[in-house]
Design goal:
This protein is of the alpha+beta class. The chain has 4 domains: 61 residues; 59 residues, no CATH class; 132 residues, Jelly Rolls (Sandwich); 72 residues, Phage tail protein beta-alpha-beta fold. It is 27% helix and 33% strand. It contains 9 helices and 20 strands. The chain has a 15-stranded mixed sheet that branches.
């Protein structure tokens, strides 16, 4: 998406947000808003992002110096707020594997937080030489020297190696989104276990989960194309010789690779985590709980198979597990209780 289009969507989203919070909201306004909101994933993500920050900072009044008080300040005019300070000071947002691990310089951290506020997220990153990581519930944005950008999801870790022949990222755990600057002379290679995802100029995400079959890898391509290979350069079993193009969701493990071709807006729903959201389309409660558990230290535990199989649909904030649990109790035949730091979900008794 071009910068101009992104800024235009952000501006329209902020106008809708301000209008919805006014006393003059009508049914016609709601119909017009629904039409705009459902027009594209970009519209939905922009609105969710602004709505989150609006709510979390008590309508951004603390940020509104010099801005009209009846609408959010535009991107680029936002400053650090208590919402971000809360996350930045939270020890659970940072990971340090040893006392030798150092934080980014003050200037780099300030730049990262400025970028974070423009996207309505609290992004925190620790670095040690060429290794970067996030803790549970944290996101991080990493600009690279070649003009590429990397966004790390919760509990993720990468190792970066930039050479004259190759731009190499090793995804050691978690998930990352890559906005790759075009450089035909230096392919952009993401290494995940015994797999390589090779690109030149494109946008895609890679997720790494550990399972009984070893690494389960998910690749979502939103722009351009990528090629999935084994680390010896050979094609992965069951893999077409054609590269993965925009809208493709690929899942690979030691048994081979499975492809799904989706409309781009649907494929992008898998990347809603970049704005702090989780989108479920007819998912099982077990799968939804597993996703929430990636972002929260208080884990959801489901006691019985029948409850695990309940179907979930909707959009939820990834770190607001309490709100998700309340909605479960209101809309499904389940009851929940806290049990030594866990949230136990079980079927209601007759």
């Amino acid at each position: 998406m071009s910068t101009d289009r992104h800024e235009a969507i952000e501006r329209i989203a902020s106008e809708w947000l301000a209008r919805r919070d006014s006393e003059n909201w009508s049914s016609e306004d709601q119909q017009s808003f629904d039409a705009w909101f459902n027009q594209s994933m970009a519209n939905r993500v922009a609105y969710w992002r602004l709505e989150s920050t609006w709510d979390s900072t008590q309508r951004l009044k603390a940020l509104g110096a010099g801005i009209r008080c009846d609408q959010p300040p535009p991107p680029g005019r936002w400053n650090l707020s208590p919402f971000f300070a809360q996350h930045s000071n939270d020890e659970s947002a940072l990971t340090a594997k040893s006392h030798a691990r150092r934080k980014l310089s003050y200037g780099a951290m300030a730049a990262g937080l400025a970028l974070a506020t423009s996207f309505g997220l609290a992004w925190v990153l620790l670095a040690n030489a060429n290794r970067y990581e996030t803790r549970v519930g944290a996101l991080a944005s990493l600009p690279m020297d070649d003009g590429s950008k990397v966004v790390l999801n919760t509990a993720s870790e990468i190792k970066v190696a930039m050479t004259a022949k190759e731009r190499r990222i090793e995804l050691e755990q978690g998930e990352a989104f890559f906005d790759v600057a075009r450089d035909p002379a230096r392919p952009f290679v993401v290494v995940v276990g015994d797999k390589r995802i090779v690109a030149v100029g494109t946008k895609f995400s890679v997720r790494r989960d550990l399972s009984q079959n070893g690494d389960d890898i998910q690749v979502v391509v939103t722009e351009g194309s990528v090629q999935v290979e084994s680390t010896d350069g050979k094609s992965v079993r069951n893999m077409s010789v054609q590269p993965l193009t925009a809208g493709t969701v690929a899942r690979a493990n030691r048994d081979g690779l499975m492809l799904q071709k989706k409309d781009l807006p649907e494929a992008e729903e898998a990347l809603a985590w970049r704005s702090g959201m989780l989108v479920f389309r007819d998912s099982t409660l077990a799968d939804a709980a597993a996703e929430f558990n990636r972002y929260n230290r208080r884990k959801i535990v489901i006691e019985d198979a029948e409850t695990s199989g309940l179907r979930i649909m909707g959009t939820f904030r990834a770190t607001n597990v309490d709100a998700f649990v309340r909605l479960l109790e209101q809309g499904y035949p389940v009851r929940t209780e806290d049990d030594e730091g866990k949230i136990v979900v079980r079927a209601q008794q007759d």
